[in-house]
Amino acid sequence: MRAHGSCAHRHGWAALVLLLFSLVSAALGQQTGSPIVLNALGRATLPLDGNWQFHEGDNLVWSSPGYDDSAWQPIQVGRSWEGQDHRNYTGFAWYRRRLVLAPGSTTGWTLALYLPNVDSACEVYWNGALKGAYGKLPPNPVWYGLGGSKPSVVILGPVESGELAIRVWKAPIVFLNRPEEGGLIAVPVTGSAEAARGLEIAAKYARLNAAQFPLWVARLAGLVGVVTLLLWLRNRKHLMLLWLSMAMVYPTARYLLIDAPNVLPFRVTYGLIEPLVAINDMAIWFLLIALLGLQERKRLVQWTWIIALTAIGLELVDTVCQFFDWTAWPPHRFLTIDVMTTLPAIYMELWGLVVVFAAFGKRLDPGRWILAFAALLSTLLTAVLDMTGLGERWTHWTLSERLHGPLFAIGGSPVNLHMLVNTFLLLAILYSAWRYAEENSQRQSALEQELRNARAVQQVLIPDVIPTVSGFRVESAYKPAGEVGGDFFQILPIANNGLLVVIGDVSGKGIPAALTVSLLVGTVRTLAHYTTNPGEILAAMNQRMIARSRGGFTTCLIARINAEGSLVAANAGHLPPYRNGEEIYIENGLPLGLVADAEYAETELHLEPQDMLTLLSDGVVEARNQAGELFGFERTQTISRQSAEAIARAAQAFGHDDDITVVTLTLLPAPVLQA
Predict the structure, then answer these.
(1) 30, 138, 242, 630: most buried, per Cβ within 10 A?
(2) How far lies 590's CA from each of 469, 513, 587, 619, in Å?
(3) 106 exposure class (CB count in 10 Å sphere: 0-12, 13-18, 19+)
C-alpha cells in the first residue's frame, strides 16, 4: 500500500507540473501567439512553421523578450508577406515567436537557427541579444536572390526557453521581380548546432549537384574561350576567333554569377549579368555574320555595331548604379532607371533575328544552317523569357516560370528548356567554327602553295649565276622579304662585249606582283633580241603594263654599257645609280603602267676603268629599324662602294620588310697586249 501510495503521489506531482506548464503556455500564447515547444531534439530539427507575430516598421525595442506583441498581426512563414496583405511593402518588418523548453528536456546542448531563405536580409535576436544575420542590413546592405538563396546558421546559445525575434529588411523592387516578395519566404528550422549545420551542408550539396550540367557547359565554354583567344592573339586578322572567344565568356560567367555554390550578393550579380548578356549578344551576332558569310553586307555590319554598343551602354547604366547605395534613393527611382534601360535592351536582343534572316537565300552548308536555326531558336526563347519574366508582379504572366521548369535531369542536375537551347547553340557554334577553321586552313594551304609556286617562278626569273662578260666584274645580291615581292633584275650580255643591266620594283606583293615580274622579265628578254636602247625597251614595257596591269605600277632602270665604258641609261621612276659612291643624275620618267604614251629619255655617261656602278631597289633605302628610323639615302650612299652582298646585308641587319636587290658593276681595265 505504501508503494502504491508513493506511486500515486508521484503521478499527482507530474500532473500538476503539466497543468502549470499548460497554464504558462496559454498565458504566453496570449502575449506572443502559440509558442513552440522544444523537446529533446538530439540530432533532429524542428521547423518553426505556423503563425508568427508580425509588424511593419523598425524598432529595436521589439527584440526584447518582455515586449507585448499581442496586438501584432499573425502571419505565416514560408510565404512572402506580400501574399499576406502587405502588398508592395519594402523596408523593415519584424517577426516574433516564443520557444519553450519542455519539462524534463535535456539541457547542455547548443541551440541554433537555420534560415533557408530570406527576402532580402535579416538580423536574428534571441532573448533581446543579436545573435547573427542573413546578409547585411542597411546602410550598404548585402542580400542575395538572383543567384539563389544562401542558407545560414545562427547560433542562439545554450538551449533554454526564450523569445526569437527576426528583424527583416526587404530591398526595393527592381524590374526582375516576382509576383509576391518579402520576408521569411522559407520556414526557419531550429535544432542543435550540429543538426543545423547538417541542413546547411545538405543545402549546399543539393545546389552543387543541381548545377552539374551548367558546370560542364561552363568548363567547355571556358576552355574554348581561352584557346580561341590565344589563337586570335597569334593572328589578329581572324576576328572570328575573337568573337568566338567573347561568345564563350557568358556561359562561364553565368555559372560563376548564378549557378556556382558560392552565392554572390544581389548587387554584384545584377550589375554584371546584364552587360554580359549584351556583350554575349554582340559576340554571337558578329560570329553569325562571319560564319554565315555576311561580312560584305556593310549596312548590316554597321547597324549591328550601333545596336550592340547601344545595348551595352544601356545595361552599363544599371552596373554603374550598383556602385551606389541605391536602396537609400527615393522610392522607385532605381526601378524607373532599371525599366527604362532594360526594356530597350530586351527589344534589341531581337536583332539576332535580322542577322539570321539576312542569310536566307545564301548557299550554305548544313552545319551553318543548323547554326542559323539554333541562333534563331535561342534569340526567340531569350526574348520570350525576358519579356514574360521581367515585371511578373505587374503582368502576372507565368510563361517564363513554366519555361524555366525542369524537363529532365542528368545525374540529379535538372535541365530546362533554356539550358537545352543554349547548349544546342553552343554546340552549333563550336561545330560551325570548326568547319570554318577547316575551310580556312584548306584555303590557307592552297594560298601557301600558290605563294610557293610564285616564289619558285620568281627564283627562276632572278638569275642565280651572273653571266661572265669580258671587261666587267658583276655582283648581285637578292634578299627577299617574307612574302613574294616585286623586285627583279636582269644581266643580259649583248653584242660587242656589252651588257644590258635591268633593275626594277613592281608595286604590291604576293602573286599579282610575281605575275607582273614574270610579264616584264619576259618582255625584256624578248626585246633584247631586237633593240638595246633603254628608252625603247622601257616604252615597250610600259605598253605591256598598261595592257595587263590593274592599277599597279613599276619602277625600272635600264643601263647599256660596253667594254669601252660608254653608258646609256633610261629611268622610269627608279632610284638613280651610284658611281664610285656618288649619285649619278639620270633623267627620270614616269613609272611604268601609269601613262600609255609615256616617253623615256636616255642619258649618256662614260665610265673609266675601275669605276664602280651600283644599282639598288628601294628596299635598301626604306629599311626600317624597330624605332621606326629609315636606313635612308645618306647611309646608302656611304656604303654604296661596298660589295653587293655587303650592302644587302647591312640593310637587312638594319631591319627590312621589303625585298632588297643590289647589283654592282665594275669596269675592268683593258688587258695589256704583249708583243
Answers:
(1) 242
(2) 31, 19, 10, 19
(3) exposed
Q: Which residue has cell 542580400?
A: 143
Burial of 675 (0-12, 13-18, 19+ CB in 10 A): exposed
Say which residue the cell 661572265 belongs to.
468
State the Cα–Cα distance between residues 471 and 469, nearest whole angstrom.
6
Q: Are 485 and 511 in contact (CB under 8 A)?
A: no
Pick from 300, 275, 274: nearest CA to 286: 300
Long-range contacts for 64-68 (Cβ within 8 Å, ≥24 apart)? Answer: 64/128, 64/163, 65/127, 65/128, 65/162, 65/163, 67/96, 67/163, 68/31
CB count, 10 Å around CB of 562?
A: 19
Following CA atoms 44, 47, 48, 49 in sequence, which dihedral angle do they give, to the nearest 10 degrees?
-160
d(CA 503, CA 616): 7
Residue 415: all three cell numbers together: 535541365
Give the number of other Cβ atoms within 10 Å of residue 243's Cβ: 24
Kindly write down the DSSP assignment for every residue of 351-395, as one continuous string: HHHHHHHHTTTS---HHHHHHHHHHHHHHHHHHHHHHHHTTHHHH
Closest CA to 621 of 588, 581, 662: 662
Q: Using DSSP bridges, classify how beta strands 189-192 and 498-506 pair: parallel, antiparallel or unpaired.
A: unpaired
Angle subtended by helix axes 298-321 and 351-358, to nearest 10: 160
pLDDT tens digit string along 499-540?
999 999 988 776 777 778 888 888 898 999 889 999 999 999
Alpha-carbon gap, residue 614 to 633, rounded angstroms? 13
Reading the block at residue 582, the C-alpha cell is: 656618288
CB atoms near residue 626 (< 10 Å): 6
Higher pLDDT, 656 or 155: 155
Q: Give dist(CA 480, CA 511) in Å, integer.
A: 14
Report d(CA 230, CA 242) in Å as an integer.
9
Q: How far apart are the first and last CA of the chain?
A: 170
CA distance 500 to 564: 14
Other beta carbons within 10 angstroms of residue 251's beta carbon come to 22
Has residue 5 got a pLDDT over 50? no
**Which amino acid is located at 39 in the chain?**
N
- The reply to whether the predicted model has a pTM over 0.70 is no
Is-contact 276 258, C-beta < 8 A? no
Question: Which whole-number Å values give the CA distances from 335 to 22, 128, 267, 330, in the listed order?
Answer: 50, 36, 14, 10
Q: What 3-state class would DSSP assign to 294? A: coil
Quote the CA–CA distance of 255 and 218 in Å, as a whole number.
Answer: 6
Q: Residue 659: which of 451, 477, 486, 458 has the closest Cα? A: 486
Does residue 601 contact residue 588 with C-beta atoms inside 8 Å?
A: no
According to the model, what pLDDT value does residue 483 have? Answer: 61
Distance (Å, rounded) from C-alpha 116 to C-alpha 670?
A: 107
Packing angle of the helix pair 239-247, 417-461 (nearest 10 deg): 160
